[in-house]
């Protein structure tokens, strides 16, 4: 066997027998690096998606809490307005009845 025998790799480049192992090592390293890069990219994309989803969920929860608080405040204010209006109406009716009673009480009687 001749040590300087050429090996045709994919029909494009001819390498010596001794260089085949170097080429294989380089190809394996390139493939491993490509796989690692793909895995890292997938992990980064997953982390970014998870962070975006968490941020969206937090924003939605904050908006819901703020809207619920606003509705609760509006409800409390409307209940207070209703209580005040009912109290004023009740006091007005009592005053009207009192004035009617005073009118009847102070009316002169015919004998």
Automatic annotation (TrEMBL):
Indicate yes or no for the key word Membrane: yes
Q: Where are the transmembrane segments?
A: 20-53, 59-92
Q: Which UniProt keywords apply?
A: Membrane, Transmembrane, Transmembrane helix
Task: Spell out the protein name for this chain.
Answer: ABC transmembrane type-1 domain-containing protein
Species annotation: Elysia marginata
């Amino acid at each position: 066997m001749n040590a300087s025998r050429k090996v045709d790799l994919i029909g494009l480049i001819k390498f010596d027998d001794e260089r085949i192992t170097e080429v294989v090592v380089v190809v394996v390293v390139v493939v491993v690096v490509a796989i690692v890069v793909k895995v890292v990219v997938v992990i980064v994309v997953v982390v970014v998606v998870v962070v975006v989803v968490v941020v969206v969920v937090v924003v939605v929860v904050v908006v819901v809490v703020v809207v619920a608080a606003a509705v609760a405040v509006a409800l409390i204010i409307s209940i207070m307005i209703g209580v005040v209006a009912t109290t004023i109406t009740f006091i007005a009716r009592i005053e009207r009845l009192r004035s009617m009673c005073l009118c009847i009480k102070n009316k002169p009687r015919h004998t």
